[in-house]
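Thread amino acids onto this structure.
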């Protein structure tokens, strides 16, 4: 694994702490990221996204979706109902999990649904008006100089 020192980035920039922290987290995480449960991230519109997580075997009340500290946290905990059952083969994993997704600024969760063993979480990016690009009207040079010129006859 490669190690990168981000100290020069901290010394040379102001206000980019979140980006540097995100890079630090990505570089520090091992290659052995959990693969359970499998998920998809899709872009459904210009500013809309959907995360789909395969949660076969979990009921809607056993799933939890929360946003805290700039991260979307999806977790599940199966209730103990397997007492008295004997499995010859157990291929459906219903073990507890917690999956975190770091959210960008101005991304908010609009809803979640549990359909056919899939948990769908819809997100939208809402950029505030202050951060949207806006057009600045440009005054013509001729119009500006007419206001500054004073008629000599009116002064005397």
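Threaded sequence (156 positions):
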């Amino acid at each position: 694994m490669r190690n990168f020192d981000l100290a020069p980035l901290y010394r040379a920039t102001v206000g980019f702490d979140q980006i540097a922290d995100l890079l630090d987290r990505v570089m520090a995480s091992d290659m052995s990221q959990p693969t359970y449960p499998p998920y998809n991230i899709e872009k459904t519109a210009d500013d809309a996204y959907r995360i789909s997580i395969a949660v076969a075997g979990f009921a809607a009340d056993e799933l939890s979706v929360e946003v805290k500290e700039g991260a979307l946290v999806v977790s599940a905990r199966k209730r103990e109902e397997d007492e008295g059952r004997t499995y010859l083969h157990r291929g459906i994993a219903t073990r507890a999990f917690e999956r975190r997704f770091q959210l960008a600024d101005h991304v908010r969760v609009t809803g979640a649904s549990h359909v056919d063993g899939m948990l769908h979480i819809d997100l939208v990016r809402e950029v505030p008006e202050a951060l949207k690009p806006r057009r600045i009207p440009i005054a013509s040079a001729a119009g500006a100089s007419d206001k500054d010129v004073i008629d000599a006859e009116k002064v005397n």
